[in-house]
Each structure stands twice: as C-alpha cells, then as structure tokens.
Design goal:
Elements lengths: L1 H8 L6 H11 L3 H15 L3 H16 L3 H18 L5 H4 L1 H20 L3 H14 L5 H15 L12 E3 L14 E5 L5 H5 L1 H11 L5 E3 L9 H16 L7 E3 L1 H6 L7 E5 L5 E5 L5 H12 L1
Helix pairs in contact: 2-3, 2-4, 3-4, 4-5, 4-7, 5-7, 7-8, 7-9, 8-9, 11-14
C-alpha cells in the first residue's frame, strides 16, 4: 500500500533517492538512509521527494526504536507538510504532503504508545481525527488504523452500516453474536489481496461449515458506482470464490473505522463481539487458521 501511495505522489524519475533511502531502512541502516536524504537536500533542496524522505526516516527510526530521531523527523515532516496544506484543495494537489503528515501523526502516536502512554496516544489520534475531519479518506483511515493497532484488540467490534453489497446484504455484527467473525478488508485492485485469495478460499471452506462468519468489506473508489460494482463482482467471483459463503459489503464507514488504509486488513471477532486480532497486513493460511482456532475454543 505504501508503494501505491508513493507512486501516486511523484513521477518515476523523482523516486530514486527515496527508493535508495527505503532500501537502507529495510536493512535497519538508519545512518545511511539519513545520509541519502542529506545529499538529496544539498543537490535539490527541500522538494516533494525530500518531504517524502523525511516521512520515511521518521517511520524507519521508529522501526529501529530510535525514538529521538523518529520524533525529530516527524516534527520536521509535519511542519513542512502543514505549510503546504492550507486549504481543502491543497490536500488534493499536495499528496506527498498529505502522506508525510499522516506518517508524522502516526509516528507521534507510536512514540507515546512505546513509552507506555497508550491512553495518551489514543487521545492524540482522536484529537487528530477531529482536527483533520475533512481531510482525504486515506489520511483519516491511517489514523484509525494506528488507533486500532494500539487500542482495538480487547474492545467491542465497532458496528458499521453498508451502502451496498454483492449478493446478500451484510447483517449487523450483533446479529452474528455467539459465533466468530472474520473480516477481510480488501480492494479489487489490490495485488496483496489477490495474493491472499487462494489461502482465503481454503480458510473459508474449512471454517465456514464450523460456524465462522466471513465478510469482506470494501468501498467504492470511483464515482461510477454501477460500473465499479460490476467490476468488483467479476473480480470477486473469478479470484476469491463463491459469494454465498462470504458477505461482501461496500461500506465507507467500515473501511474508515477499521482503518483499512492498507489492504488487506484482517479483523477477528469472538462470539462475544470482542476484537481478538487486528492485522493490517497479509497473513499466511497457517497463521490465520491458528488465530481462528483460538476463537473456536
């Protein structure tokens, strides 16, 4: 998902320094990544790619637990981003700034949670959601994703309404109370989701007869909903399997509240309606099956 966002922000020829920086971060080499961005700044100034680089340095520093560096880069990224985001229209024309702002807010919350201040982190994210209530869907979904990573497990699964559905309508989650529920948040264009399709089909086939409910919420991404719904149904039937075994609702509310800025996202809910797993990542068949087995005990 991050690659998709990044690709949308900058032309391909402008990505090389951030690509290099990310490779350094993937190896846990924060100092070299910092050097890449320093050289870029000297040669090209604080351009859009520099802002993206700051965001990735903040994320990379958080990953290696260097919270002092993470805080510094998050603050710098936030400051530069907000200087470009003065009006609602700016959020559409400065997508790299939106990405950097989202990263900075996430890293700040991560830092609070890592220091044992989970409640403070959740309040910070809730305040940010109010501050950026009219920001693009992706930014708000990212904030909810981070909230969920910190605070969702162990709480009641948030209810949601659907605007439409493939096949049968999605019932309220409370109607499935007493039986486990697996939510698979996806998008028809998502390569990582399609890579999960075969494993997901097998898991559904194994556990749906045992009383586990499966739903695969998505949302409309275009204005032509009729054409998009037809395309989504074709993809679902050809890639994921028969509709009767899985409810497929279209729900902005679900995709937002469950923080599906990254797809796939898995949410496992026990028979009492409590969230037991929140994973905004791909999952192997073995791991997903193991987590479902816990719900059936």
């Amino acid at each position: 998902m991050f690659t998709v966002v990044f690709a949308a922000c900058l032309p391909a020829q402008q990505m090389e320094d951030v690509r290099s920086l990310r490779l350094k971060l993937s190896a846990g080499d924060l100092p070299s990544a910092e050097s890449v961005l320093e050289v870029h700044r000297a040669a090209k100034g604080e351009d859009a790619e520099y802002l993206m680089g700051l965001a990735w340095l903040a994320r990379g520093a958080a990953l290696v637990g260097d919270w002092a560096a993470a805080s510094t880069y998050a603050e710098r990224a936030s400051g530069l981003a907000l200087a470009q985001l003065k009006t609602p229209a700016d959020y559409e024309s400065h997508r790299e700034a939106v990405y950097a702002l989202g990263t900075a807010l996430e890293v700040k919350a991560q830092q609070m949670a890592a220091s044992g201040q989970q409640a403070k982190a959740l309040r910070f994210l809730e305040g940010s959601l109010k501050t950026y209530s009219v920001a693009p869907f992706g930014l708000r979904a990212r904030l909810w994703k981070r909230w969920n990573q910190i605070g969702l497990v162990g709480t009641k699964a948030p209810a949601f309404v659907s605007e439409d559905a493939l096949g049968a309508a999605m019932p309220a989650l409370d109607e499935w109370r007493g039986q486990p529920v697996v939510l698979f948040f996806w998008a028809e264009w998502c390569g990582d989701c399609k890579a999960q399709a075969e494993d997901f089909r097998r898991v559904v086939g194994r556990y749906e007869p045992k009383g586990v409910h499966f739903a695969a919420p998505t949302r409309f991404y275009t204005a032509d909903r009729a054409a998009e719904k037809k395309r989504v149904e074709e993809i679902w039937r050809s890639v994921y399997g028969p509709l009767p075994l899985v409810r497929v609702p279209f729900s902005d509310a679900a995709m937002l509240r469950y923080g599906a800025s990254a797809t796939p996202t898995f949410v496992l809910i026990d028979g009492k309606g409590t969230v037991r797993l929140y994973s905004p990542t791909r999952m192997t068949e073995e791991r997903l099956s193991r987590e479902i087995e816990k719900l059936l005990r």
